[in-house]
TrEMBL record:
This is Protein zer-1 homolog. Gene3D superfamilies: Leucine-rich Repeat Variant, Ribonuclease Inhibitor. Interacts with the ELOC-ELOB/Elongin BC complex. Part of an E3 ubiquitin ligase complex including ZER1, CUL2 and Elongin BC. One of its GO terms (cellular component) is Cul2-RING ubiquitin ligase complex. InterPro entries: ARM-like, ARM-type_fold, Armadillo, LRR_dom_sf, LRR_Zer-1, ZER1-like_C, Zyg-11_UBL_adapter. Keywords: Acetylation, Leucine-rich repeat, Repeat, Ubl conjugation pathway. Residues 404-750 form the Protein zer-1 homolog-like C-terminal domain. Residues 196-337 form the Zer-1-like leucine-rich repeats region domain. Coiled coil: none annotated. Belongs to the zyg-11 family. It comes from Agelaius phoeniceus.
Amino acid sequence: SLKMASDSPESLMTLCTDYCLRNLEGTLCYLLDNETLRLHPDIFLPSEICDKLVNEYVELVKTDSIFEPHESFFTLFSDPRSTRLARIHLREHIVQDQDLEAIRKQDLIELYLTNCEKLTAKSLQTLVSFSHTLISLSLFGCSNIFYEEENPGGCEDDCLVNPTRQVLVKDFTFEGFSRLRILNLGRLIEGVNVETLLRPLASLAALDLSGIQLNDVAFLTQWKDSLVSLVLYNMDLSEEHIQVIAQLRKLRHLDISRDHLSSYYKFKLTRRVLNLFVENLVNLTSLDISGHTMLENCTIPSMEEKMGQTSIEPAKSSIAPFRGLKRPLQFLGLFETSLCRLTHIPAYKVSGDKNEEQVLNAIEAYTEHRPEITSRAINLLFDIARIERCSQLLRALQLVITALKCHKDDKNIQVTGSAALFYLTNSEYRMEQSVKLRRQVIQVVLNGMESYQEVTVQRNCCLTLCNFSIPEELEFQYRRVNELLLNILNQSRQDESIQRIAVHLCNALVCQVDNDHKEAVGKMGFVMTMLKLIQKKLADKTCDQVMEFSWSALWNITDETPDNCEMFLNYSGMKLFLECLKEFPEKQELHRNMLGLLGNVAEVKELRPQLMTSQFISVFSNLLESKADGIEVSYNACGVLSHIMFDGLEAWGICEPHREEVVKRMWAAIQSWDINSRRNINYRSFEPILRLLPQGISPVSQHWATWALYNLVSVYPDKYCPLLIKEGGIPLLKDMIKMASARQETKEMAR
């Protein structure tokens, strides 16, 4: 089902929501005074649509760099008569006090505020407006929501230094929140009295106090008849805590896990504590004890442990205290404990580090609120993907994508996640992935490149992009990818390996794409960037892959794109060409790439006069004799000269070398080539070659063009015969055979 799920198109609802959010002005809204968004007066939207609009908006702002947030977005939902909100999930810096204030008249049932660090105590007051309807509330990581700004009285000079002091609000409680059942106060700021804060709540069902240090939790027993879920992640426990937990007999989910790297914990788990839980918490279906050190051995003897088929039956449990369970647990968290490596674990889902299944369960369970654990779990997945083969590929990919999206600014997750993606998208897994999924990978990779100038992330992201078919699979983000790569290549200090991969990607991106793409990339500074790289390499006297790829990229981007050819000349490209030729006389690949590029320049009539100097013509004539890369260098040099000759005698504005002498050398070169040569060249169109057929000005140019066509259609008939027919080459050849000025051997070849 996962395969199908990832492959199915987005729902119409999702597509419409996305479209409306990207085009608010053209759909739901108009602009008042050119700045404030206002809802059209005839629009009425139910909560199913409004919730989706708000939640998707938050997601887009967070994960799509091109999406522009709107100052006044939340004001669209200020009037419950036209827009209804019920369940919304807001995250991080996207939401501010005035945004919550704007929707205060809504009857919210569920409000999740996750890591919203910009919210202050003003928002606590706004929460009171939702008190009569709110059932579920999360303030996880909202580190400033209990702070208000206080202006010191009689402020003189002090104001300039410290205009506002942050003061902890002590008097707020959940008084009046009569329907509140689910509450997450994870990572609550120190100094707030949790007991006083919570006392007014009549019947809590779920409470999350992650990362809060409380020495006395006896107050929890006031909900012993209603509490079904309790999370005390990273709370330093003691015997008193355990005794209180054992009284919460209705608990179905208990999480006392910890991050074993975060700080020193005195508490150690014992067999007695686990026995206490099993005996007293008879409804337990989910337990998380990840990260704990076991003080004593809780396992059964190893002989017995290894016996029989792996079983989840409590009676066969390798962890002795769990033999008292009535039925297997739905979930058991054992990540970074020794227990996860045992054979018989009485749970349907286990988080741990023993195998792929356990690691994926860990990533799934901890991504949202515990990036510090998730990054270590992804690191384990990275090893599995690198060394073994992933058996749950789609699930793994989806989980890593979610983690990267959720923690765009967490360096550890970006480093481990981008590395894992490289191995999860490589060719052996290719068949199992849908277009949609591969596009999601590309999106998060580009997000990572945008957010992090850090070398490891950049390298991982570039390497991952190499796993895709370029340019086809990157076409939908074409501008963005090119901008990011050029950005990498324009940095003053550069990592060699990243530079090499980035130039390779740039080259692949401009190969075999439409001319409008090439023009757009040219305008982004592509030509200039490549020439700068060549300049640097020349100064270092190195001709490496970066040098060759840069010339190859210029060859590709100038193909039938006159603007880019002109840029090449304007930015002293010819000077670099001559210097490279002189510095690296033996580098065949380089010569081929440079001459391929000059062939493109020579095809542009307006630019040819700039090639008409004694120096350039001598260089091209001498290269006619080159044996570099088979016939390629000689062939391209002859192509350049063929276009120049086509401009006629009057265009030959130099005394040396003589035109006739060059023509003679061209004939000699063409006659020396093997007509069956296999080629290192790729034509998308024959137009520039066909141009040279119907003319009597330069028979040698006509001969070069005919030779080129003859060679390509005879060596690669399947590819080039259809192209020749499609572009009208047949009548041109027939007419040429009748021309008096054409040489006999040219006509023979044409026939």
